[in-house]
Task: inverse folding
């Protein structure tokens, strides 16, 4: 797992910056998602990366994470297994999770929503789709 | 059936290239055209991913090293000399993952498909030949003067003869 702090951010001033965890076994895709979120205008604080669900749970349990963006198809622990384990975690089960995946199957998405995901973005994606979903989810957190 | 999946494969591949890599794709209906440089690429990447659902098999993507590096530059916003082999390998795997995931989400929405972790290899001095014959389908694309080959091999095959897509050794 890697921590990447976005320069010039991580401060909670006039606008709220959110700590992000990006989970994908493709390092290239993690970079693209991070960059896409940055250019979308969503205010990022600390940005963590994990290569699978197991690494992601370690980050979630040891750091303050506001929102998780995760893939499904990953080695070691896939996204669905991570969601099941997170749901059993009394402390962190309310951490907002968004799927960013190639998966578009209705049954699997229903299962993921049943495990508590807040939203879903299908790859390939546009920056504004990520921004709009993250903004909606994080605004909902403060309602 | 083969024509339906071929149309879906063309649509999702073109969408991924345009959305994520900002590269337009054109289908080579009559096979590789003269002047498309990578029919014989000096080096090319072969990405492969398995799928299991109503239909099972594997999806293979072949593209030249030069095109793959351009795609990474576009994907990550890098300069040419900043692109590493690891990034290209990773990108080709992700390209297979996106193509296969989107294809079966589009083509067979009711069935949850299980995809394997993609594998990528760099080959040198070989023709980008070979493709699915009776057991699947092959689509040739042209992207910025380079050839991209997409092949789907089904197991069990649509037809009775075996495919000629090579597996990773």
Result:
């Amino acid at each position: 797992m890697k921590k990447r702090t976005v320069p010039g951010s991580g401060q909670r001033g006039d606008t709220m910056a959110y700590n992000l965890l990006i989970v994908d076994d493709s390092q290239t895709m993690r970079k693209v998602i991070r960059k896409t979120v940055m250019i979308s205008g969503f205010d990022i604080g600390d940005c963590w990366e994990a290569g699978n669900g197991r690494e992601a749970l370690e980050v979630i349990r040891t750091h303050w994470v506001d929102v998780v963006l995760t893939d499904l198809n990953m080695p070691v622990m896939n996204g669905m297994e991570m969601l099941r384990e997170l749901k059993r975690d009394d402390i962190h089960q309310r951490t907002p999770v968004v799927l960013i995946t190639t998966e578009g199957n209705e049954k699997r998405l229903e299962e993921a929503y049943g495990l508590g995901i807040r939203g879903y973005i299908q790859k390939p994606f546009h920056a504004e789709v990520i921004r709009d979903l993250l903004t909606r989810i994080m605004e909902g957190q403060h309602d | 059936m083969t024509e339906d999946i071929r149309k879906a494969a063309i649509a999702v591949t073109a969408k991924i290239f345009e959305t994520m890599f900002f590269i337009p794709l054109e289908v080579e209906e009559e096979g590789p055209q003269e002047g498309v440089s990578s029919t014989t690429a000096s080096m090319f990447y072969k990405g492969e991913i398995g799928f299991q659902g109503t239909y099972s098999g594997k999806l293979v993507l072949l593209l030249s090293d030069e095109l793959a590096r351009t795609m990474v530059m576009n994907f990550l916003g890098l300069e040419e000399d900043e692109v590493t082999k690891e990034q290209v390998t990773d990108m080709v795997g992700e390209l297979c993952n996106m193509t296969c995931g989107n294809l079966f989400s589009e083509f067979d929405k009711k069935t949850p498909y299980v995809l394997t972790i993609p594998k990528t290899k760099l080959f040198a001095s070989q023709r980008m030949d070979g493709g699915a014959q009776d057991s699947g389908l092959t689509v040739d694309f042209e992207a910025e003067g380079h050839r991209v080959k997409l092949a789907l091999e089904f197991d069990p095959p649509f037809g009775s003869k075996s495919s000629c897509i090579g597996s990773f050794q």
